[in-house]
Amino acid sequence: MAQNKSRLGTGVFLWEGNEIKLQPSLDRLKNLTEATGEDGLNFLASVDSPMRLTTLFHHLQIGSAYSEEDIYSYFFGNFGDFEKEEFQEALMTCFSQMTGKDLAAAIKPADDTQKK
Question: Comparing C-alpha atoms, which of 50, 51, 44, 55 is closest to residue 11?
């Protein structure tokens, strides 16, 4: 069978010395679906707040057993971090590793082609 280059894999999120590995396996996505009432892949594609990221990280973690409180505290407790380019890059790297796609390239703003 040919390898699918967009295969789901393990992502690593490293922030301020704290690390968590995330793997969107079928079992973890099913658990996420049960916990949230939303389809796991749709939830993964629509994380837009620290609380949703905390829930996602909690259910997709592998090799650790952080509570949601721990995840929030270690990775998302400082609201100012969300504004930092380094934080956004770390998230994009993790999500790109999980989805097998270069998400940063996919969402780069298009060049301004409008005449002024």
Answer: 44
Give yes or no for residue 43 having a pLDDT over 50. Answer: yes
Q: Which of 115, 21, 1 is nearest to 61 (CA)?
A: 21
> DSSP character for 38?
S
Per-residue confidence (pLDDT) for residue 92, from 0 to 100: 92
Position 115 pLDDT exceeds 70: no
Which structure tokens are listed for 59? Answer: 């259910």
Query: What DSSP line would sit under 47-101, residue for residue?
Result: --SHHHHHHHHHHHEES----HHHHIIIIIS-GGGGG-HHHHHHHHHHHHHHHTS
Each residue's pLDDT tens digit, 64-94: 999 999 999 999 988 889 889 999 999 999 9
Sheet containing 18-22: order of strands: 11-15, 18-22, 61-62
SS3 37: coil
